[in-house]
Amino acid sequence: MTISLQGKTFVVMGIANKRSIAWGIARSLNRAGARLILTYNRDRMQKNVQALAETLERDDTIILQCDVSKDESIERCFQEIKEKVGTIHGLAHSIAYANKEDLEGEFVDTSREGFLLAHNISSYSLTAVARAAKELMAEGGSIVTLTYLGGERVVKNYNLMGVAKASLEASVRYLANDLGKDDIRVNSISAGPIRTLSAKGVRDFNSVLNEIEERSPLRRTTTAEEVGDTALFLLSDLSRGITGENIHVDSGFHIVS
Ligand code: NDP
Ligand code: N5H
Predict the structure, then answer these.
(1) Which helix (H) or strand (E) holds 207?
(2) Nearest ligand, CA of residue 43?
(3) Domain ranges within the chain, ordered by starting residue
(4) Which residues have any ligand 1 atom within 6 Å of their CB?
């Protein structure tokens, strides 16, 4: 069976620019013939997403704003999707946020406010969005989110994001159990480090990438295209027996010590 998403519609959330993992996912889905709905958060990202959408092989891409920290914004966005397309077949959630000052120093110093903000946007948002998307998945569906190894192990500086990713990964399992009866699958991809806008402020990101090149089984870093193609698999019927799973797309780095 080859992967074709012809006649199907997918929502991709979290494109900031051409380096975004969400854009890698959008391109893979587009190549398989899917219709796309792309969402962005900050106003000034709209023109980026618009310009990127114009490079796709179809001209019916829908672009909408969705701030996942606000229930009204999620509600408005999915109401618009319902009016414009009716049924969707899958959704990619590629969104995370933490205050910069919480991504250095020790986890023990995390403030209540910083902790809750990171968990709200990086973890709870998956559940909020899955609930809204479920109503539009009348023919079943597949939901994919992005996580990182720091959710399973202590990784220097990942701090509260590691705890938020652990919560996100557990949410994947609970959501998979709830939504399975509606033929909706929920999985995550644990991506290796990729130089995106989120990673921009990370001190010593070069040495993080060097370590992957030296020590990962495949001896190379992960690309957004590799993540995009695994998302395509998870969002397609080829993965129909898989739910509640976390697939590492990280050149195998998670198996080495
Ligand atoms: P990007 O910076 O490209 O994407 C992060 C996205 O999160 C942006 O589009 C940003 O939108 C969005 N976002 C932040 N706050 C909100 C909000 N309130 N509502 C809606 N969207 C919001 O980085 P990546 O592509 O790297 O990150 C995507 C996912 O991949 C994240 O979950 C990240 O943790 C995960 N990941 C990344 C890895 C990496 O090395 N890059 C490794 C493993 C996992 P805006 O700018 O408009 O606010
Ligand atoms: C161990 C590491 C390195 C240290 C930790 C990095 C954590 C990054 C995740 C969060 C999501 C980054 C973040 O929120 C940055 C913001 O504080 C500032 N940046 C922004 O506001 C930009 C403009 C917008 C677009 O960013 C967001 N997120 O909205 C982990 C790395 C090796 C791997 C990595 C980078 C993982 C990951 O989860 O992204």
Answers:
(1) helix 205-215
(2) 1
(3) 9-255
(4) 14-16, 20-22, 40-42, 45, 66-69, 94-97, 121, 146-148, 191, 193-194, 196-199
